UniProtKB/TrEMBL annotation:
Domain of life the protein comes from: Bacteria
SUPFAM superfamilies assigned: Protein kinase-like (PK-like)
Name used for this protein in its record: Phosphotransferase
Residue span, Aminoglycoside phosphotransferase domain: 90-207
Length: 274
């Protein structure tokens, strides 16, 4: 299983909820129609999108809202995780999003990493007690991820970015729009589980766009966010009966024994130096 496979499962999971997404036409223009859109996403496009667009965060144009159906601009060109991670505009847009100050919509997605979520995910994985203990301890430190410091996309995996015909980079699929640490939006830009140098590279690119960020604190939060994604994805795989579920679980079972001890050490060491 490759890093691209991991990106693919995240993209597919986002398409397996109650919403249905398909291409259509609106007044002679190609568009995306999304039915059964969540209240959070409808609020985003109706209330928050004008604010984030005004500061330079590109989102699809909203053509029409009909009850729970959104009709939006179609973004034609896919973007790879490698391209996103190297494009300074990715991090400029995220920094601008994270800098939006006012409360700009009635409803946010409430992100959390709870003990029951961890227990549910570990029931699906085949990890040693020692590795399970590391995940539990990372979960116990995760509150820092969800303190409402800034607004977030909440789902910046490469399947939710695209380019217009003119090359403009656009971020879409805002059903996880919420609040918390910038690390939540940076973690999906690290391919696979990543290593220390990969996290440092992402932080350096983000810090170039947001110089006020504390690199040491963000490093810890980025490690925690990557661990949280494991829990989120494993539980979604199980809840939604995803095809090839076992394939993805086998991938986690193969990479987590190497990754978790490093992640636990990075988070513990960085916290001890604060």
């Amino acid at each position: 299983m490759t890093n691209k496979d991991v990106v693919l499962v995240l993209k597919n999971l986002a398409q397996m909820g109650e919403a249905s997404v398909y291409r259509s036409m609106y007044q002679g223009r190609a568009c995306i129609t999304k039915t059964h859109a969540t209240l959070v996403e409808r609020d985003f496009y109706c209330s928050a999108a004008p604010y984030v667009n005004a500061v330079g965060v590109n989102t699809p144009a909203l053509f029409e809202v009909r009850e729970t159906t959104l009709c939006m601009e179609w973004i034609p060109h896919a973007v790879s995780i490698e391209e996103l991670a190297q494009d300074t505009n990715t991090f400029e847009q995220l920094a601008r999003l994270h800098g939006v100050e006012r409360p700009i919509q009635p409803h946010f997605k409430h992100h959390q990493w709870s003990l029951p979520q961890t227990q549910s995910a570990l029931e699906q994985l085949s990890l040693t007690p020692e590795l399970e203990s590391m995940l539990y301890q990372l979960q116990q430190r995760s509150d820092v991820l969800f303190t409402p410091r800034c607004v977030l996309s909440g789902d910046t995996n490469p399947g939710n970015w695209g380019r217009r015909e003119d090359g403009t980079l656009v971020l879409f699929d805002w059903e996880r729009f919420g609040q918390g640490s910038p690390a939540i939006d940076l973690a999906p830009l690290v391919a696979g589980m990543g290593d220390k140098s990969a996290y440092q590279a992402i932080i350096a690119r983000y810090k170039a766009a947001n110089p006020s960020v504390d690199s040491h604190s963000l490093f810890v939060e980025l490690v925690l966010a990557k661990a949280w994604i494991v829990i989120e994805v494993v539980n979604l795989l199980t809840q939604r009966g995803t095809p090839n579920r076992d394939r993805y679980l086998n991938w986690y079972n193969s990479v987590l024994p190497q990754w978790l001890p490093h992640a636990f050490r990075w988070a513990s060491l960085a916290e001890s130096l604060r």
